[in-house]
Amino acid sequence: MPEQSVPQVRTPEKPQGAPVARSAGETISRRRLLGTAGATGLVLGAAGGAVGYASAPAGATPLTSVGDSRVQFHVKHQPGITQPLQARGHLVAFDLGPGAGRTEAAALLRRWSDTARRLMAGEPSAHGDTGVARDAGPSSLTLTFGFGHSFFGRTGLEKQRPVALDPLPDFSSDHLDKTRSNGDLWVQIGSDDALVAFHALRAVQKDAGSAARVRWQMNGFNRSPGATAHPMTARNLMGQVDGTRNPKPADSDFDQRIFVPEQGEPAWMANGSYAVVRRIRMLLDDWEKLSAKEQEHVIGRRKSDGAPLSGGGETSEMDLEKTDAQGNLVVPFNAHARITRPDQNGGAAMLRRPFSYHDGIGTDGVPDAGLLFICWQADPLRGFVPVQRKLDRGDALTPFVRHEASGLFAVPGGAADGEYVGQALLEG
Fold it and tell me: Which residues contact 80 (CB under 8 A, 6 or more apart)?
């Protein structure tokens, strides 16, 4: 379970009606503006475009800061990759239905893209909307679509299948359930409201119709925005600060590491990325038997604040050579944080954007809980694979986790206005 993850950096919630500061990359939802008396004019969107809104009846109550947060659908890179962690997530894989091929897949991606655009704007879906999210704003909803290795054979598009989509190698720590792995199509849904996320999941399932059937589906969560006194990196279910060394969009080589270049191959993957999805069960009963000090030696970081054991704060550079009075390495040789560092893996880097999960407690009293690991990279053979191979050879965390499901998906770039996700592949 590589260390990197997306920091959950959010502005704490404001009291209802208080002004909410926004950066140039944020937008205000239609419902927020319609719910505020006299709110007219233009709002700068995340993609740099202007959108007009009409005024609302006087006296209407505005949405809270959580509900009014909106992510644009028509952007260069699909939404749900670089956004901050969301409070609720659903991952669902589909297999094409009997007799369905390229034509049916194209029609399905067109429906899904239209639904995603509508729901992310806080609007109902075009057909048979359930009304589950009727009272809520967009709540940072994102929908992200990808193609699995098997999709290309079933649609006659084998020549368009990327080399980077070759199946992942076997790892010694794998205990994979094939029925909950891979799939022709993959959809990632995220939102800061559970009902908004479920509404999107139900809409995607209904849109599939007879063209595709659900292969597997998983549910996840993260800390809610505003739950901490100030923005901070999230924690996982082991209680560890998880995400300190994640690549940041401000890094000079971020796009090179995470996204396929515009002139890359195949052409339909321009501005896209590859998602590795792993269901990693945490053996929490065993983990929680360790003392806090023992847990810190497994990870290589302080549990209280995520700082490296070599000293400093959370973001301080880890001193891999520092020793204690007995001459022992302060950060153990097999510590998870040491092994997953890019400079210990030939520069391999990936953008982690996971969800925690809990699927109940067994009759033996053992929780089925852990991490829905999702990482993004321009090439998984240079991102996820080398890091996981090194973890396989001696990560101190390995005895406390179990990889139970896996998938790899090609996620094309964002859809231009008037187009749908994957159009360059399906109509090229």
Answer: 71, 142, 143, 144, 188, 189, 190, 353
Q: Detail the DSSP E strand segments found in 109-252.
A: 142-147, 185-191, 212-221
DSSP result, 87-114: SEEEEEEEEEPTT--HHHHHHHHHHHHH
Identify whether the C-beta of residue 221 lies closer than 8 Å to the C-beta of residue 116. Answer: no
Residue 108 Cα distances to 80, 96, 156, 161, 218, angstroms? 20, 10, 16, 19, 21
CA dihedral 120, 123, 129, 132 (to 10 degrees): 80
- C-alpha to C-alpha distance for 62 and 32, rounded to whole angstroms: 5
Q: Model-level pTM?
A: 0.86
Q: Select from 341, 338, 260 the least CA-distant residue to 77.
A: 260
pLDDT in tens, 93-149: 999 999 999 999 999 999 999 999 999 999 999 989 999 999 999 999 999 999 999
- Which residue is catalytic, options 242, 255, 379, 395? 242
Active site residue 379: no
pLDDT 10s digits, 207-240: 999 999 999 999 999 999 989 999 899 999 999 9
Neighbours of 4 (CB within 10 A): 20
